[in-house]
Amino acid sequence: MGVLSLALLALPMAGAVLLLLLPGERAEAVAQRLGAAVSAATLAIAAVMALSFDYGDAGRVQHEIDAAWAPSVDMRFHLGVDGISLPLVVLTALLSFLGLLYTMRIVPEIRRLRAFVGLLLLLEVGMLGTFVALDLLVFFVFFEVVLVPMYFVIAIWGDERTARAAAYKFILYTLLGSVFILLGFLLVYGYTGTLNMVELADNHGAGMSRGVQTLAFAAMLAGFGVKSPMWPLHTWLPDAHTAAPTVGSVLLAGVLLKMGTYGLIRTALPLVPEGAAALAPYLGALAVVGIVYGSLACLAQRDLKRLIAYSSVGHMGFVLLGIATLTPVGVNGALFANVAHGLITGLLFFLAGAVKDRHHTSELVALGGGLYERMPRLGGLLAFGAVASLGLPGLAGFWGEFLALLGAFRPAEALDRSLFLTLMAVGGAGTVLTATYLLVMVRRVCMGESAQRWRASPWVGDVSRIEWLAWSPLVLLVVVAGLWPRLLLDVTDPAVTVLLGAG
Amino acid sequence: MAWLLPALPFVAAVAGLLGGLRAPRLAAPIAVAGTAAATVVSFLVVTAAPRDGVAAERGTQLTPTGSIPVALTTYVDGLSATVAVLVCLVALAVQVYSVAYLRRDPRYSSYAALVSLFTAAMLLVVLSGDLVVLLVGWEVMGICSYFLIGHYWERDWAQGAAVKAFLTTKAGDIPFLFGIFTLGLDAGSFRISDVFAAMDEGQLEHLGVATLLLLGGVIGKSAQFPLHTWLPDAMAGPTPISALIHAATMVAAGVYFIARLWPLYLEADGTRALLAVIAAITMLGAALAAFAQDDIKRVLAYSTVSQLAYMAAGLAVGGRDAAIFHLLTHGAYKALLFLGAGAVIHVVGTNFMTEMGGMRKAMPVTFLATTVGLAALAGVPPFSGFFSKEAILAAAEHGTDSGLISVAAGALVLISALLTVLVTAAYVMRLWLMTFFGVSRTVDLHPHEAPALMSVPVVLLAIPSALLGFAAPVVPGWISSSDVEPESLAPAAASVGISVLLVFVGGYATYAAWVRARQSDPAQLLGRYRRAVERAFYVDELYDAVFVRPVRAFASGVVFTDRVVVDTYVEGSGTAARLAAAVLRRTQTGNVQTYLTGLLAIVVVGLVVVAGTAA
User: Fold this and answer.
1) What's the whole-number mean pLDDT along residues A458-482?
2) Out of B135, B163, B615, whose CB is closest to A440?
């Protein structure tokens, strides 16, 4: 059944190549439809993978393919999914499809459609590859593949004034981070002589001294911390998210950030458990600082897209806190929060983009309130997104935060409980701050009376049909995952138990 | 069958949200039908509820978590079934009334759906057998109140009130969540029945801490000092919403929660002592504030805060049944008073009592029904509020005698409660006189009775408001739970005499002041303290200085730090790398492409090195 894993990557790759080969004008004409069709087919493959997945044995790697690639380094083309990666694979395929579907909307600002769609498909290959890779070097290659298309998407199709600087900053930071990740991987490889992630995870760090493990974990933490982003390595994020075009922001927040936390869970935790135990208190502390710091920063933002971008710093703080507890419940929470944040913040960036398209600005003062009055459905959706984002129980955002805090309430035995109780309390206070900035945002954007200048422009329409199509799956999933959390937790829990060796 | 109770209004909410956008005419039938169906089910549940004190628990696992699983169960006993009936009845009255009250409101369909969701969330709190699922209903109620208080979102004060209501209760919910963690990990389960079982076996090592943490959520939801300030502002919503929030949902949840976990709180003496102090402060302070308000809805709002403090006091002194009895009677008469006040506001077009007057003749039905409600609130015998309040006073005496509460705390509660009786009678009399008596000060020359859809629920609510007190001997049987000894709700002779006298004094003094001042505002009795009392002792101003402004300052500080400090070191490291790249390539172009190429080169070289060493 490994053919599915292969097809998952081959299909978007083929789509990108096809766009490249087609003659110019023809490619421009079909690019949008081709992109949507290819990503829909990819989503279908992901769905088949999910449906044929054996949930009774979610801790085992399935749909596995394992072929020699570079025998000199013992590097193998090793792909597969288990309960940890499967939800992220489906999320990635879904968000890519919705993003490309959304691109079908005729937006005059989007030029060079062939290149745009081609890069998005290439991006999808990299993202999916990262989540299905089971060989450290393969993982690293896919991790890097993502950077290039995203760089161009931001730089070329982003906000005219800020995009180039933001794109530089993005690739600068993440490449710096990658160097550290590679160093960490090399250390592990140097001491164990294998790149097989499944085998390494089963060994639980055997063959490496505590010092080596700590060093390797520190290197990986620095690298994945940039991507997550972990405070204080986050400053690339607001610029990149704000400058990127809507689809770029959606995929950045919805998928790219998850690659960082997924990398921590998939490689750093199981490969070097003693290093993780040594540094988890620092990770927890930085995570909580990120929660509070990100929320405070949101309170003072003057731009809608920038505010949503900063909110990721706080939300990913909960993911990192869950990881830092080194408990099954905390890691489950991190994985849940990962997916929930992808759905919710993906939706919020779609909505913020729609607001910006209609007003040609996303500055709060320039928008000036009254969205409920002008476009009640867009306003209502924005309020829904905000409520989901603040972690309301019954919606997807809640369970991740809940489980991360529960993990911190009783962290792994190796960790200092009183420290983590403090972290939990501060994190809890962070949820109040989170609610504050989101409700203040809704107040400033949605409530109040509409400014005269918007009333005078009748072309401003409410949610269009293609927008409904692109957004309603996200809304639906946010509700379903909130009401029926076992949909995800049944999948992740067995795999997390295996991963942490707690079984 | 009990699971239908939250499910039916929930389905109505979803159908109303989806269908209401397409066919606004269906919004009202959907909303009323959902709540009416739930009401029918609630009567079936209460008749079938186990009377032997053992709860019936049914359900399934909601989700694994990696440690303690979360269960989706219903927990039915006398207490939950009876409170569910109250919730359904008040919600039904509110839904019917709203059809008329918001007839021309373009936002009606989303409004009605949110009221249904609100009802569903409260019923989930009442019936859930798992603390985490209870928390879900608990916070969903918070967000429903946020949207409904912000119904008139074009108005600045409604926006502020909505945000404030959510954030204040959310602040209490954080310790509440940690309290659930504490109980859950001690008991090894989040299920209420398991927590009780663990308690019997002495496994709850952190009982005091847990009950204290949970108290944070309770005082937030039930608007007790110092988290009470959101409730008076919540008046910004439509009047039927106030009836819903004040009578049967939201604020009732806090009191209900303590009664639900009663075996724990009965053991937690320290927590109850703290609750006694909080209740004593809240009941008197809020009653005084009610006396100084001009907005009729704010008077009722402060009276709710004060009456909830009676319930909290009842719980603090060990009188669970007395507190729940008061919750039931208060639910009836406070719903009546808000709906009645809404009818008056609907007709005269103002909230301010100084602009009302003489409505007795124009609205005789509303007048009579409201008079019943006010008499019950003031504790005039034999109306319902008299019996339930006397039961709390009796519980305070009994609790002190039997050592359930310390003498000091018991005395504090008793003294504060008696003073509150006096002040309550005074503000009730003031409201009654200024609204219904004297000369009419309204602009509208033809005031008239409210439409039937509005007056019928008001009249129907007058029946329990008047008569529910006589049910005192059977109420402990209705609300029985496992592990809880039923109490007598008979009033104590001594306090009955004193409090009836105080009701008379408070009412008469206000009447005399009103006559002396030629039928203008009796709040002049407060003299130069009037302003301070009207602002409810400046607690809002204090919070603004202590919380709101520092957080804003911190936020600006963070943005500054991000721009200046954090970015600088990263750009500094960027410069360092650029120099390194420059040295490597012996060029001084310094542009970013060069630099990126350098970094990519490092990565590639790294890969090659691996390949080389392995080969």
Assistant:
1) 86
2) B163
